[in-house]
Specification:
The protein is mostly beta strands and 505 residues long. The chain is 2% helix and 42% strand. Strand 1 and strand 2 form a beta hairpin.
Length: 505
């Protein structure tokens, strides 16, 4: 009978596993192709484990592939493990070096008092699946932070901790809520010579993360968010990678990402967005290509598709410590009318060669001269792009506005998120060297499209290192230059960046 129950459980989970790979993919630092279709799992011999406040039991009586010590479950061997139940103080650990592990969360509500609810140890290959239709939650406590509780040797500083050299995929068609009371929501480690290549991939999953202390998702090597629905609130970064962050892939719908609150939204040394529906509300930069631990690095921010809506209350919209390139998609950026903060800011070049781009705010406009390969418009209350924060507002908060051509046809319409003294607009629907009108309430401004190097009214360079209060950068080593063949950079001598969330604004 126990065996029959196990088989019935396996059958109910089979569909949810159809699109998830048996182990984490080996990821590259680009996402120019669609992800490989997943692999069906064989659950005939799945081990079903149930958490309660009084213990952990195996439904089929199996005693291989895992160890139970009180309320701590350790997965020791390859296999599929379906985990269910409710527990106020328990944990799941995948043993160092274990590969081919599939952990199916099927109605699991797991809280841990002093460590991570789930830990994938070094050099592991683990797929964590939220079963179809299942609702799952993982929660830690304030004690899961060895900065605040240095005597707690069990602290892992994350609700889901993926250590150096681990390759972890989070997927499935169920939901997972992560509540990080200690430090980070999800933490992925580094690639090292000793432990091997590290990566974290998220696909399909409905993932909700509340991280009131630090980052919602923090990776030290490569982080791929391929698909799924993510809702995030964080005290620091919403989604951070020390090196590579890929969002979506060409030819796919990509993920839906909603960041309701954060310091910075998406941050990586190399940030690439190919697809997805992304909505970010931040207090500092919405998108940031930076890492203060790295010097001589080819920082890049590349947007080729998707829909991005970004609003910063006191920082830049998009800020790259290298080059910023927009070649497709729909980008809408609003920044508050504060000094030295721009909707588009780069220490290198800013290039708009495609897509629809609306960037509005106060201050000095863009942080660098912009190269427009398609026609663009600039509107401002004092002519051209407008002046500084005291030059008045071309658009007032909540005002409806339109951009129309000479015949009165509406090219773009929207509602202002904040006061803006200038507005930049580029679209393939614009005609070069033609006049267009911005109308917002009683304001009516006319400008002529231009292309090539756009410099009139643009501000000076912005975006040096920012002050993050208690968030201090580490003293990491300098990595090699970004290879021209698109391969992932490796940290020298197996070293990893020192800061948990190293940023420049």
């Amino acid at each position: 009978m126990k065996k029959l129950l196990s088989l019935l459980c396996a059958a109910s989970l089979a569909l949810s596993l159809a699109a998830c790979g048996a182990s984490a993919d080996t990821n590259t630092n680009t996402n120019t192709t669609a992800p490989v279709a997943g692999t069906l799992y064989s659950l005939e011999n799945a081990t079903v484990l149930t958490f309660t406040d009084s213990g952990i039991t195996a439904q089929d009586g199996s005693d291989t592939g895992y160890e139970i010590d009180g309320m701590a479950l350790t997965i020791t061997d390859a296999g599929t493990y379906a985990v269910t139940g409710t527990c106020a103080d328990g944990s799941i650990t995948v043993k160092k070096g274990a590969t081919g592990v599939t952990l199916v969360l099927n109605g699991l509500a797991l809280t841990s008092a002093d460590t991570a609810p789930i830990t994938c140890n070094k050099s592991t290959q683990v797929t964590i699946v939220a079963a179809e239709g299942s609702v799952n939650s993982l929660t830690d406590s304030a004690e899961n932070n060895d900065d605040e509780y240095p005597d707690n040797e069990a602290a892992e500083n994350a609700v889901i901790k993926c250590k150096d050299g681990s390759q972890v995929t989070l997927c499935g068609t169920g939901s997972l809520t992560v509540t990080a009371n200690g430090k980070n929501g999800i933490k992925s480690g580094a690639t090292t010579a000793e432990e091997g290549e590290a990566s974290l991939t998220i696909r399909e999953l409905t993932l909700i993360i509340n991280a009131p202390i630090n980052d919602a998702i923090n990776a030290e090597q490569t982080l791929n968010v391929e698909s799924g629905t993510l809702t995030i609130s964080a005290a620091d970064d919403a989604i951070h990678s020390d090196l590579v962050l890929n969002i979506g892939a060409e030819g796919t719908d990509g993920p839906t990402i909603t960041v309701t609150a954060c310091y910075e939204g998406l941050e990586a040394a190399q940030l690439t967005i190919c697809s997805g529906d992304i909505d970010i509300t931040s207090s500092d930069d919405c998108l940031n290509a930076a890492n203060s631990d790295l010097s001589g690095y080819d920082f890049t921010m590349t947007i080729s598709g998707g829909t991005i809506t970004a609003c910063s209350s006191s920082g830049d919209g998009f800020d790259s410590n290298g080059n910023l390139t927009i070649s497709g998609g729909t980008v809408v950026i609003w920044t508050a009318n504060t000094a030295d903060n721009q909707p588009l800011d780069a220490d290198g070049t800013i290039t708009v060669s495609g897509g629809t781009v609306l960037a509005a705010g106060g201050s000095n406009g863009m942080g660098m001269n912009l190269t427009a390969a398609q026609p663009c418009l600039t509107f401002g209350s004092s002519g051209g792009m407008g002046g500084g924060p005291n030059s008045g507002s071309a658009i007032t908060k909540n005002a409806a506005f339109t951009v129309t051509d000479g015949d009165g046809n509406t090219i773009y319409s929207g509602s202002a998120v904040c006061n803006a003294s200038f507005l930049f607009f580029s679209s393939p629907d614009l005609t070069d060297q033609a006049a267009y009108t911005l109308a917002a309430g009683t304001t009516s401004l006319t400008a002529e499209t231009q292309s090539g190097t756009v410099s009139s009214g643009f501000g000076g360079m912005g975006g040096g290192p920012g002050n993050r209060g208690d968030f201090q950068p580490g003293d990491g080593q300098q990595p090699p230059e970004m290879p021209s063949d698109g391969q992932r950079p490796q940290m020298p001598s197996g070293q990893k960046p020192g800061g948990a969330s190293s940023s420049q604004s």
